[in-house]
Write a structure and sequence with these properties.
Strand order of the largest sheet: 6-7-8-5-1-4-3-2-9
Radius of gyration: 21 Å
Structural class: alpha+beta
Helix content: 25-40%
Number of domains: 2
Distance between the termini: 45 Å
Number of strands: 17
Low-confidence stretches: none
Shape: globular
Length: about 375
């Protein structure tokens, strides 16, 4: 058991400029339920108006600024829409606070406590190397609302989670220089290095004049299974990397995407497409080579029909026989809404069928897909 005592990801706060658009996306597109909203008192004390959406063990709080003293206003003054806080469940908030402070964390608050609403809650925030994103650590004992200032709706509104979203699989962040964040996660949070990869979209040679690459390292908490995937640009052609482009568009380092697990990705993606959800495209050549790749990776066989995967543009990866994952990436919000202030954040949908990796064989396909989208939108 680690000293931090993480048990999972509880929720995340997404600072936006249009709450109605968020409601439409989560309830009408992803079939999340609207389960909470901020109180009038919270509008006055926190300076934010929030809606809370849930599906399975995934909870997202979307917040807009209603005053100049709010976290939402400060974040959105510096960035387009994006994730400004991630909340983690811990066994003991006091023990977690002491553990982090002793290892050099920078607490933003002391441990805050609230009684009532069916129990008690204790929580605190710390600063992070993840740009302007705070981490919150929460000990909950029967307390029903998400946080003080959030009122739970008596009857949820909107969707029913018919796509069977389950939980946040991992958090992916982009940095211009990754090492300080990795050292912080290891020496402050107590995580360990789990997985890494580096590559270019083309085989770099002396005759080439452009390309795009990245280094990626995953940090892992053994107790909870919480995973952070972290990327940085890889030379040459540093400024052509889509990691660099994210940093420019986001206004600094930050969270690029969250991966959400589902029970069965094929009907989920088919129905999401029918609802107008847009995904990053995958070239047909990926599927032409897929049967051979499945053999080379050692998976040997998959349950899904390759033609169906081609139709839906779902990616496959793995490293062991009969053990693989299926994944697909939604279009970035800025491209989805054709609005730069919507931000470069996006979601991944993932189904794990035994494999616990990160789709190393698909990184190139994803990277090239993001790169094509950035080029088509004139961002590269």
């Amino acid at each position: 058991m680690s000293g931090l005592g993480l048990t999972g990801i509880e929720s995340y706060q997404y600072f936006v400029r249009d709450l109605e658009r968020s409601r439409d996306f989560y309830c009408n597109k992803l079939d999340f339920a609207e389960v909470g909203e901020s109180s009038q008192q919270a509008h006055e004390t926190l300076g934010e108006k929030s809606l809370v959406f849930n599906a399975g063990n995934i909870t997202v709080q979307c917040s807009v600024a209603v005053s100049d003293h709010s976290d939402a206003k400060r974040f959105l003054d510096r960035h387009p829409a994006g994730v400004g806080r991630v909340s983690f469940q811990v066994r003991d908030a006091d023990a977690a606070f002491s553990f982090l402070q002793a290892r050099g964390a920078t607490p933003r608050t002391s441990v805050q406590r609230t009684e009532g609403e069916g129990g008690s809650i204790a929580y605190f925030d710390i600063t992070t190397p993840f740009g302007d994103t705070f981490f919150r650590f929460v000990e909950r004992k029967g307390y029903r609302p998400l946080f003080p200032g959030i009122e739970t709706l008596s009857e949820p509104r909107g969707g029913k989670n018919r796509f069977k979203f389950q939980h946040v699989d991992h958090i992916t962040s982009n940095f211009l220089t990754m090492s300080p964040a990795l050292l912080w996660m290891e020496h402050v949070m107590g995580l360990r290095r789990f997985w890494d990869v580096e590559f270019h979209t083309t085989d770099v040679s002396e005759t080439q004049d452009r390309g795009s690459g990245l280094r990626s390292v995953v940090m892992y908490d053994d107790d909870s299974g919480v995973k952070f995937a972290n990327n940085e640009p890889w030379r040459p052609f540093f400024e052509q990397s889509q990691i660099f482009v994210f940093n420019r568009d986001h206004g600094g380092d930050g969270i690029q995407h969250l991966a959400l697990t589902v029970e069965d990705i094929i009907p989920t993606v088919r129905e999401l497409r029918s609802r107008g959800v847009q995904f990053m495209p995958t070239p047909g050549t990926y599927y032409d080579a897929l049967p051979e790749r499945i053999e080379q990776m050692g998976i040997k066989r998959i349950d899904e029909d390759v033609d169906v995967l081609r139709e839906l543009e779902i990616l496959v990866d793995g490293a062991e026989e009969n053990s693989y994952l299926l994944q697909i990436f939604l279009k970035e919000a800025a491209g989805l809404y054709r609005e730069p202030q919507a931000g470069p954040f996006f979601y991944e949908v993932i189904q794990r069928k035994g494999d616990q990796g990160f789709g190393a064989g698909n990184f190139r396909a994803l990277f090239e897909s993001i790169e094509r989208a950035q080029q088509s939108e004139g961002r590269v």
